[in-house]
Amino acid sequence: MHTVKAEHTLTHLYGKDFLSLKDVSPSDINALLTEASLLKQHPIQPIFQGKTLAMIFEKSSTRTRVSFEAGMAQLGGTGLFLSSSDLQLGRGETVADTAKVLSGFVDAIMIRTFAHEKVEELAEHADIPVINGLTDRYHPCQALADLLTIQEIKGKLKGVKVAYIGDGNNVAHSLMIGCAKMGCDVAVASPKGYEVEEEAVNAAKEAAAVSGTKITLTDNPQEAVRDADVIYSDVFTSMGQEEETQQRLSVFAPYQVNASLVSLAKPDYTFLHCLPAHREEEVTSDIIDGPNSAVFQQAENRLHAQKALLKALLYKQD
Ligand code: CP
Ligand code: NVA
């Protein structure tokens, strides 16, 4: 058993919420990535004895659920899976009452839901840290794992060019902000009408002004991937948008990541995808299952990144 201390202490995040990357400083993100790498080498650290994380899911999940639950177990605590259809929340108990009640039982709450405002409301009324496990607007835990993966593969973040191709969604927003904070150049190519939201663009541009990186927004996927080090893709239809599936399939067809598109990137480009993927829609099988793909390393990194986050939020380090 090893209890390894991170090189940088994580005191800025102790007791706080983690709702988006907007309010997390580059040095805290860097500290989380360092801690995640250490936890990857020494996964079992019994620092959370008696601590419980409530995990509320209003949408499906494989990675987020299992990585948080396994992560809590590896740190000596318990992850408690709560489906909203079983909670009184699903029968009309208010978010505020749920927050106050859970604050008396557990040490932190992770929630996956639709409206981002619901997570903000939960955080406002909870006395304990609240973690965003995906909303319609942000997926910050995913972005932490994405940054960890890019750093592992490229050996750095500063100056790495990341091209996101597809829907201007939750994953795109968090990736863009995280990359801008850590010094990656970001190019986002989305069809007209499906662009990234203004709030996320502003946050990314502010971060880019500090880190000295470039944010490119375009509707041209070829322009975005040119000389890219990383090509990132996500589903065309996110959870909650199912009725738009047919329309999106045709709008997004030119945004498929395939052999022709990746030929414009650097030869040693890395393909990333938050998963789950729809092969032959947003990405062809030869690319996602090919030698440049790191999607399973990326998925595994959810575990390590979130354990670092949990440790930062819940474990007082001196
Ligand atoms: N990437 C991601 O969040 O996966 P799940 O929906 O399986 O949690
Ligand atoms: N954009 C996708 C990500 C799934 C992890 C969604 O919200 O469904």
UniProtKB/TrEMBL annotation:
Residues annotated as domain Aspartate/ornithine carbamoyltransferase carbamoyl-P binding: 16-152
Keywords for this protein: Arginine metabolism, Cytoplasm, Transferase
Domain Aspartate/ornithine carbamoyltransferase Asp/Orn-binding: from-to ranges: 158-312
GO biological process: citrulline biosynthetic process; L-arginine biosynthetic process via ornithine
Localization terms from the record: Cytoplasm
EC number: 2.1.3.3
Signal peptide stretch: none
Any one GO molecular function term: ornithine carbamoyltransferase activity
Reaction catalyzed: carbamoyl phosphate + L-ornithine = L-citrulline + phosphate + H(+)
Pfam families per UniProt: OTCace, OTCace_N
Family, per entry: Belongs to the aspartate/ornithine carbamoyltransferase superfamily. OTCase family.
Database matches in PANTHER family: ORNITHINE CARBAMOYLTRANSFERASE, MITOCHONDRIAL, ORNITHINE TRANSCARBAMYLASE, MITOCHONDRIAL
Function, in words: Reversibly catalyzes the transfer of the carbamoyl group from carbamoyl phosphate (CP) to the N(epsilon) atom of ornithine (ORN) to produce L-citrulline.
Record protein name field: Ornithine carbamoyltransferase, catabolic
Biological source species: Bacillus amyloliquefaciens (strain ATCC 23350 / DSM 7 / BCRC 11601 / CCUG 28519 / NBRC 15535 / NRRL B-14393 / F)
Lineage of the species this protein comes from: Bacteria, Bacillati, Bacillota, Bacilli, Bacillales
